[in-house]
Amino acid sequence: MQSNPNYINQADFNIILQSIPLLHIRKWEDRDIQYLLKILYHMALRPSEGIRLHKENFDLKNRVVYLGETKTSMSDKAIIPRIFHEDLTAWLETKQEGELFVNLKYRTLWVWLKRLGKMLNVEAWLDGNRAREQELTVGHIFRKSWGKDMLDQLGYDKIDVISTHLRHKKASMTFDYYLKGNIAKVKDTI
Fold first, then answer.
1. N or C: which end of the chain has fewer CB within 10 A?
2. Phi, psi of 29 (to 5 degrees)
3. What is the C-alpha separation between 52 and 23, in angstroms, rounded?
4. Are 55 and 98 in contact (CB under 8 A)?
């Protein structure tokens, strides 16, 4: 699938990760920011949820990350996908207990993403993109992209699994809001 205003494909995601050093971030290590973006994508987290993580929030044995209070729950958790588990475990082994992204604010992440958007011509992060502005995809692009990737891999009959990973109460929210870019595929499928 080609990247668009509410989706970043895997090839573009990898280019974004490789381009983090071009931001010349001084306060955080490039590798840590790359892992923040990987965490947001693979665990389908909202930016604020990823930024607040502590090492002790991760239960690697059970492949769960405890998020605490989120937008939709007083005590939320997310699944660590098998495909990301080994990579995440290796990175976490290099970290000390406590906050993983000390003093990082969503606004700072937002600025980095906008800068990357300009450098790499990422449609979702370019100024004046009405679709992006209406869908708030600057930080949520990783959740949306994960959902669309899983829909392509698992198929429409697994929308409930995808919805659960996104932590949506209803599969209709997942389908109508997050994955609406794939409605044409439904028409082709059924």
1. C
2. -70, 140
3. 22
4. yes
- Per the confidence metrics, is the pTM higher than 0.85? no
Write out pLDDT tens, residues 95-112.
999 999 999 999 999 999
Structural domains counted in the chain: 1
Q: What residues contact residue 42 under an 8 Å CB cut-off, 6+ apart?
A: 80, 81, 83, 84, 88, 146
CATH value at residue 25: 1.10.443.10
**Cα separation values, 164 from 12, 44, 168, Å:** 26, 10, 6
Distance of CA 93 to the CA centre of its chain: 21
* pLDDT tens per residue, range 110-128: 999 999 999 998 887 876 6
* Residue 162 included in any domain: no
